[in-house]
Amino acid sequence: MTEPDVPITVVDNPDHNRFEVHVGDALAGFTEYRTRGERYSFVHTEIGDEFGGRGLASRLIGDALDEMRARGATVLPYCPFVKRYIQRHKDYQDLVPVQERARFEIPVG
Question: At the fourth CATH level, which superfamily is domain 3-104?
Answer without folding.
Answer: Gcn5-related N-acetyltransferase (GNAT) (3.40.630.30)
